[in-house]
Amino acid sequence: MTTTTDNTARSRATRRRRAKSAVAGTGYHLFSGVMAAIFLVPILWVTLNSFKTRAEANQATPTWFPHSWSLENYGALASYGNGIGVYLGNSLVLSTLVVIGTVIVTVFAGYGFARFRFRGKSLLFGTTLLILMVPYATILIPLYIVLGWLHLSNTVIGLALTLVMFQMPFGVFLMRNSFESIPRELEEAALVDGCGPIGALRYVSLRLVTPGIVTVALFSFLASWNEFLAPLIFLNDDRQYTLPLMLVGASTGLYGAVNYGSLQAGIVITIVPVLLLYLALQRYYVSGLVNGALRG
Amino acid sequence: MLATSSDDVAVARRTRRSPRKGSALTDRPGLGMLFVAPLAAIVVVLFLIPLGVLVFMSFQDWPLLGGPKPNGIANYQAIPSNSLFTGAITFTLTYTALATVAIFAVSFVLVAVSNSHRPGAKAYRTAFFLPYVVGTAAAALIWFAAVNDQNGIANTILQDLGFTKGPWGFLDTPGQALFTTLTLVVWKFIGFQVIVLLVGLQAVPAQLYEAARMDGASTLQRLRYITLPFLRPTLALLLILSITGSLLAFDQFQVLTHGGPDNGTITLVMAIYNTAFSRFDLGKAAALSVVLLVALVLLNGVQLMFLRRKDDQ
Q: Do A226 and B138 touch (CB under 8 A)?
């Protein structure tokens, strides 16, 4: 008798616990789902709006879902200033230059720091990390003057070099650590086999630090694609504007009365590449945060 | 090679750490310098020289289109009586305090949600993080469109949920504009903080929780005596990042509020930018930059001290 009661009591307790955890699970998903929705709604909303007709996207009573789907807002962007294609191209050129520049500079420097001994090594490394300490907004004005001296003001090259500079601390730190984690015996074996130092770097180590390179490239792409203040200061000519500059211009009526549909179409064009890139390379992004951005 | 003894591994590890004398590569300092040369050139030309120019500039009367004239510490002396600067300093400090509190408060909730082993937790984490990848200017433009008084969706939502009867003026007063920008900032930046906190949480040994649970520690006690001490360096880092990031705010206010209404939402960086490129006064802009720079370097120094003390323990 007692055992049965015990068993029933126990099974009742188990059942209660299960029911409790099921309730907790539902509550968890209800709450988290609402939170996640709040974070996704702004992105979904601009995307939906961008596919409405111009009239619907600008009407006084806003709608959630398009009554009729249309590419009108995207088409209208062609007549903004020099046309959206020019600004998209500028953004692509700038980001590509920054990615290539950052990767070249930081791979070489990371290799130099990890493998060689030379005078002033720690001084240079420390000074590079110091860039992180100096808020970049405070040195953009003197940079503007210095770029003028170099005849690089108002050029995409000058802007790209500046953005490379701001990516260097993170990139050099990450690349140095990547190279340090590779046994130098591998390279020395290559040297014995008749490779030059550049060959050893190219054929042996470079392949092993590819994850680090992808991470550096990803971070520098995202940073330069999204950058607003530096292009605002360095670029004076509308033909050189990047997407964020052009869009902010559109929001202030630089290209005629504000058309919210087209503005949102422009936002979608600007954010879709970075969102896709992040989703595709999420692994590298998080490892970059953990290994570089946080320790650096 | 096949029979690698543990001694070999130890040797390999040691050589990896410290450059061994007589190695084929380490003994060629010239080559090493060649590899770091591009970096060194950029550091000198685009970092050290501009830094020097900034300090020099702050002691000059320097109109944007014209040459510099030395004027001593006049630019610094003028800061307290410059209402644009003092207003910007007050506003930026207010914004920094509110943004930091808001981001910390919301991030704890989202971390609790994301740190679950339930199916779906990963998807929630991605949702919280996605806005961080969106550029600040683009994010501010989403808000700009959502709160515009012609057809913004934000007021429709508020009214449908019964929060307000008539339209709410998201940007009507400096207070409202600040609040609206804070919602944008939480949305945009919280994902970073959540990911960093999650990484920090993974470093807490699970056995500690087990042991504490067996000893009868409550959830709150486990949080207080296990989680918090382990997270302290992470929290210190996030606090500094949030403060320094907020002190440098520019994009969100430039794009969303344009510093208005009544110049009520002008940040320090906006004040610097406007002084240099609208008022063409490089000297005054540089002096304010130097003040901001010193403040941030001090803040970072405090952070380093915290982290170092952690390492000593």
A: yes
